[in-house]
Amino acid sequence: MTTALHKYLIMNTLSFPILSVAIFLPLAGAILLLFMRGERSIKVTALITAIINFPLSLFLFSRFDVGADRFQFGEFIPWVPSYNINYILGIDGITIFLILLTTLLAPLCILCSWTAIERRVKEFMFCLLIMETAMIGVFCALDFILFYVFWEAMLIPMYLLIAIWGGPRKDYASIKFFIYTLFGSVFLLVAIIAVYLVTNTFSIPDAMFRDYDFTFQIWVFLAFAIAFAIKVPMFPFHTWLPAAHTEAPTAGSVFLASVLLKMGTYGFLRFCLPVTPKASVFFAPYMIALSVIGIIYGGFVCLSQTDMKKLIAYSSVAHMGFATLGIFSLTLFGWEGALLQMLNHGVTTGALFLCVGVVYERTHSREIYDNAGLGKIMPVYVGFFGLFSISSFAFPGTNNFVGELYVLIGIFSQNKLAGFFSIVGALLAAAYMLRLLKQIVWGREDKRAISDMNAREVIYLLPLALFVIWMGLFPRPFVQVIEKTLMNLHSQMNIFFR
Predict the structure, then answer these.
(1) 206, 210, 291, 296: which could join 321 in a potential S-S bond, CB 3.0 to 4.6 Å?
(2) R_g of the chain, CA atoms, integer Å
(3) Rounded distance, CA 92 to CA 339, Å?
(4) Which helix (H) or strand (E) holds 75?
(5) How does pLDDT run across 432-486, given as a tens digit for each residue?
(6) SS in 3 state form for 415-455?
């Protein structure tokens, strides 16, 4: 292990490799499913595997040192020494909550698919567990090649989830998703190779904050940015998202919205800022402009939607625009807001997709009119839906308000015009979510025989509802965890520009 890596990495001192266990436990569960028969035993095994990983990540969180500014729980195993490729793992304040979010959502996705998936159940659960392994791997990897392996490993199971268990236009949606993300992956690989040719290492910490030539930074930033902008997705790279969200099964939409989109913003924070800091500053005005366009464009498109899933999908373009806006404000407030927005969007939008799945199982329609007027018929359901809807447009006291507030403070301190237009986007969010909520609760009056939520559905929505309130009223513990890592990133950026 290099001296520079020691400078950035605190090795794991636990009696077992906790990050490796968190990554590969779902993979082990997926392999076990291949030898099992009977749908119920397959579902139970998948659920138990996913549930075990959540307390494991809570234990990881309990041992996380919020005062440390280095990567923690480090693991290092030489992989291909001749090319300096190594199995390096570690987490910091940027990734700890993303891992927790992933391990929380995995069992919820299995629960929401319990009755909704009626064919090829084994293959479906296999894909979900493989997805969990790949997503946690992306957040833990500190070697470019290892990161790229996990990054690509997400592509196949998500493609299969859409292509096999998707809606009527699943072929179109899955192919479009695959081509877009593969196109971005090519640029990501080019950027990784370029960095390797200059540094002779695939170690991500070793590649950070080096005095690269400005022209080199410009090209590497552009390659990284195309890959991550497609994943976010930023305007104008967003067109794959509505089709993928609309046609994917509920669990696929939840993973897609709550975790996969975060890979893009995570990439901007992990790679663009520390590896190409001068280029990040150079391109910041353009990235801010694209973010603001995405916020306003997403808001206006949402106003005209009649499909609940498509509306929530386009709202993701706007919400993730706030995340990229915070990142490229290049302020500490903006970065904290962006990270909180990533976490909050994962909770709220994931919960809204779960809510759509609940009514779709009953009405077999995603159209707003077909699901209107549920206030008297499904009072428990509209209670949850109402909470997640007001959270989505950042009502004070809910989780999204905190993230957007931090982002707005960050962007107003740097660019008041961008701040003004992002306020317009926030108002549009209130307009389209209140319109949707009004229709769902009071939209029409009839005597449809639709049952309210059952215990299983309450169980998988309740943790997300509690988080919306907890994060909205007591955000300090969350900010405290991410603060040290982002302060270190901010100070490194400032040192670089002195």
Answers:
(1) 291
(2) 22
(3) 12
(4) strand 71-80
(5) 999 999 999 888 777 678 888 999 999 999 999 999 999 999 998 889 999 988 9
(6) CHHHHHHHHHHHHHHHHHHHHHHHHHHHCCCCCCCCCCCCH
